[in-house]
């Protein structure tokens, strides 16, 4: 049997009615990985029953990233100068007409990539690129290697330290170009390089580059002037600049997330607005949505493609209908979390785990659970410390007796 | 495929919701077609009583299409949504869910004989028909849970048989009649007229194939889009990619194909309008085959191209195939 039923993971079992897999069981498993704002640790919670599965000690407070496959979670510890890989313990295998799920205990994968000030961490097609600001270096590793417990990364260097980003894009690497005149400021563009880091062509201008996301087969970088939109070209990546619409007020996007199921991007645009972006539409690519107060965090719903969620400093979670381009529902969850003060102060973060939206409340030490269909609060989970960044991993699949 | 195709059973167009009868007579039926070939069928049946919006347009690849929020809005406001089914539109379920549409979503292949996808059998020649398999797993769309997805078991490219195109047209006429009873006579008359053009087209294709020597009827294309054409008309197609363009061919797939090309003495090789020509150019180079032109597989050309309609597409393809083989 593929599922390790002796693990501490609580799983939901349902008999499958599939005639093609008469003895198969449908299994649903979701896990929450939560970093603490103060303590160097990652707590793993079973999202099905709310129980704690494990706590992993790391080197410093971390931002978390999950892989597309869900098999790996990365803890990027900027102040400690290390990226740690964690095997989520949940994996899927495509069997044509159905998919199998394999559930094991989460564990440290054995990967540690060290360097000065790791910051942006980007996955593209199973390759991860961690950018180390203090060195201006990207360290790239595949998920396959990570899950083998190895740390065999390759390095691609830029010309100078910078608050940068890199994307391993097939046989190319997209690298941020440092601001040579003002090294302390944000990058000024994107350069395409071959796998060894040798530049190909010139710089694609992207002043104040900050924010990157993928949606479907499009990758985008946010700039002061608009987006750089990257798609598969003929041999090399095709990059074009999409300027902000004239109808938008002054502003820019500095944080970008990509839609799942529907192809779109959601970016901040000033403190109390967000912008929905469809880079394929000429002339009407940007739709501006005003928020009641300043934005704290946002996330897309990977299952209900129609929705994204935005948390604002008044303690409300908002359900954004990305088709209509409007807030569909709002729900008060926490006390106010002012956006005054340092950007990295403990404030709520949002993740989606199957049919639940999960919001961290770091000052209360609680995770709030919101039903994604009814958009009503359905429960909470206490977590020691200051639960801060959160990612979820999981899904449903079949297991088979006798395997 | 025999002429006993289950047309009699074709009444069973699949609909996610009951068809809402009759829009106001003064309003055109708002029709969404998932891709350009279906849009062309719908235009021929609906005439000036329907307004058609196409999701995946000319030269677009529906296998890898990424639906946008604007598409969801379009589907949400439609009276009728026409799709191929057989999991050709991998994006369909998430798009329909996001749209919250109340319109019927009609699978136009319903009721037809379905060929089995042979993608998992190493190389990609299509020789097997899952005869009588009318109960295809159309509703088991690509899984939308995170972390994995499912591929269909059937070859979705049913329109590559003109005989099947007649089924599409019949299903469209039935759908339009259910949604707009006042226009039903028009739809039936249009379908019959267009059906006559399809019958003439099929006769042309069969006549063209008859002129090709039997030992020269093996050709190469980019992906397995021509299983129905092969089954119906007797041209054997080999391809490095499977029935979906979503997965690229592996080096082993390409090597096996090149070996098979040499064994089977393929007569011609073609690029497709919906795929990158690079791989075909590589295979042509390694096998010494000359590229015989561009075939239209999963999408029409734009209106200035040689395949702006289904009739033009099929004529273009058989003309290109015959010309390349006989000229080789």
Structure, explained:
The complex is a heterodimer of chains A (403) and B (328). By secondary structure, chain A is mostly beta strands. Chain A has one domain: Methylamine Dehydrogenase, Chain H. Chain A is built from one helix and 35 strands. In chain A, strands 1, 2, 3, 4 and 35 form a five-stranded antiparallel beta sheet that branches. Chain A is globular and about 55 Å long. The termini of chain A are close together. In chain B, helix 4 runs antiparallel to helix 5 and helix 5 packs parallel to helix 9. Chain B folds into two domains: 192 residues, 3-Layer(aba) Sandwich (Rossmann fold); 124 residues, Rossmann fold (3-Layer(aba) Sandwich). Chain B is built from nine helices and eight strands. The N terminus of chain B is likely disordered. Chain B has a four-stranded parallel beta sheet with strand order 2-1-3-4, with helices on both faces. Chain B has a four-stranded parallel beta sheet with strand order 6-5-7-8, sandwiched between helices. Classes of the chains: A mainly beta (403), B alpha/beta (328).
Task: Name the descriptors.
heterodimer; A: 403 residues; mainly beta; Methylamine Dehydrogenase, Chain H; five-stranded antiparallel beta sheet; four-stranded antiparallel beta sheet; 35 strands; disordered N terminus; B: 328 residues; alpha/beta; Rossmann fold; 2 domains; four-stranded parallel beta sheet; globular
Architecture per CATH nomenclature, i.e. the level-2 architecture of chain A: 7 Propeller
- Our count of helices of chain A gives 1
Strand content of chain B: 5-15%
User: Helix/strand-derived class of chain A?
Assistant: mainly beta
Helix content of chain B: 25-40%
> What is the CATH level 1 assignment of the largest domain in chain B?
Alpha Beta
Report the portion of residues of chain A in β strands. Answer: over 45%
Using a beta-carbon cutoff below 8 angstroms, give the protein chain pair with the largest interface and the number of residues from each chain.
Answer: A-B, 39 and 31 residues
Average pLDDT reading of chain B: 84
Q: Give the number of DSSP strands of chain A.
A: 35
């Amino acid at each position: 049997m593929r599922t390790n039923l002796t693990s501490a993971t609580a799983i939901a079992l349902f008999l499958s009615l599939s005639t093609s897999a008469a003895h198969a069981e449908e299994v649903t498993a979701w896990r929450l990985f939560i970093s603490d704002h103060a303590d160097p640790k990652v707590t793993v919670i079973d999202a099905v029953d709310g129980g704690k599965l494990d706590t992993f000690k790391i080197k410093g407070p971390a931002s978390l990233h999950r892989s597309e496959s869900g098999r790996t979670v990365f803890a990027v510890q900027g102040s400690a100068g290390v990226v740690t890989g964690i095997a989520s313990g949940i994996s899927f295998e495509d069997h044509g007409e159905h998919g199998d799920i394999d559930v094991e205990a989460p564990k440290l994968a054995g990967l540690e990539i060290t360097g000065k000030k790791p910051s942006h961490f980007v996955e593209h097609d199973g390759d991860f690129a961690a950018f180390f600001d203090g060195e201006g270096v990207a360290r790239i590793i595949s998920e396959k290697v990570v899950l083998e417990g190895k740390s065999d990364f390759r390095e691609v260097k830029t010309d100078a330290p910078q608050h940068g980003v890199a994307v391993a894009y097939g046989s190319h690497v997209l690298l941020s170009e440092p601001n040579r005149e003002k090294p302390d400021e944000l990058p000024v563009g994107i350069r395409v390089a071959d796998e060894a880091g040798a530049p190909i062509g010139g710089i694609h201008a992207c002043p104040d580059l900050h924010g990157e996301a993928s949606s479907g087969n499009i990758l985008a970088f946010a700039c002061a002037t608009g987006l750089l939109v990257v798609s598969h070209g003929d041999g090399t990546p095709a990059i074009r600049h999409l300027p902000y619409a004239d109808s938008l007020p002054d502003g820019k996007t500095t944080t970008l997330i990509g839609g799942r199921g529907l192809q779109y991007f959601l970016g901040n645009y000033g403190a109390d607005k967000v912008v929905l972006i469809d880079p394929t539409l000429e002339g009407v690519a940007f739709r501006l949505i005003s928020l009641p107060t300043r934005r704290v965090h946002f996330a897309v719903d990977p299952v209900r493609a129609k929705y994204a969620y935005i948390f604002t400093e008044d303690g409300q979670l908002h359900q954004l209908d990305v088709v209509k381009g409007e807030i569909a529902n709002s729900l008060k969850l926490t006390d106010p979390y002012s956006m005054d003060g340092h950007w990295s102060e403990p404030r709520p973060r949002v993740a989606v785990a199957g049919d639940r939206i999960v919001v961290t409340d770091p000052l209360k030490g609680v995770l709030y659970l919101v039903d994604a269909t009814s958009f009503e609060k359905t429960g909470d989970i206490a977590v020691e410390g200051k639960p801060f960044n959160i990612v979820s991993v999981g899904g449903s699949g079949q297991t088979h007796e006798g395997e | 495929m025999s002429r006993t195709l289950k047309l009699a059973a074709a009444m069973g167009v699949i609909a996610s919701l009951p068809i809402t009868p009759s829009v106001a007579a003064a309003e055109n039926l708002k029709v969404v077609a998932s891709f350009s070939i279906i849009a062309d069928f719908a235009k021929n049946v609906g005439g000036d009583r329907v307004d058609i919006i196409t999701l995946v347009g000319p030269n677009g690849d529906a296998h890898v299409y990424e639906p946008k929020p604007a598409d969801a809005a379009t589907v949400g406001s439609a009276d009728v949504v026409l799709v191929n089914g057989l999991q050709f539109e991998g994006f369909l379920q998430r798009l329909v869910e996001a749209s919250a549409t109340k319109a019927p979503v009609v699978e136009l292949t319903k009721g037809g004989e379905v060929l089995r996808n042979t993608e998992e059998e190493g190389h990609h020649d299509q020789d097997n028909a899952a005869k009588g398999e009318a109960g295809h797993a159309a509703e088991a769309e690509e899984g939308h849970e995170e972390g994995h997805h499912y591929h269909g078991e059937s070859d979705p490219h049913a329109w590559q048989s003109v005989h099947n195109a007649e089924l599409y047209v019949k299903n469209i006429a039935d759908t339009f009649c259910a949604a707009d009873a006042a226009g039903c006579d028009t739809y039936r008359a249009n379908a019959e007229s267009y059906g006559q053009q399809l019958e003439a087209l099929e006769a042309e294709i069969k006549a063209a194939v008859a002129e090709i020597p039997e030992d020269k009827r093996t050709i190469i294309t980019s992906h397995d889009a021509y299983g129905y054409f092969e089954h119906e008309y007797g041209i054997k197609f080999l391809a490095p990619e499977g029935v979906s363009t979503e997965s690229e061919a592996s080096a082993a797939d390409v090597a096996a194909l090149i070996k098979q090309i040499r064994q089977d003495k393929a007569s011609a090789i073609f690029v497709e309008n919906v795929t990158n020509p690079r791989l075909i150019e590589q295979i042509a180079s390694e096998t010494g085959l000359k590229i015989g032109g561009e075939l239209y597989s999963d999408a029409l050309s734009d209106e200035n191209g040689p395949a702006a309609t289904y009739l033009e597409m099929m004529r273009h393809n058989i003309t290109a195939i015959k010309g390349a083989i006989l000229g080789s």
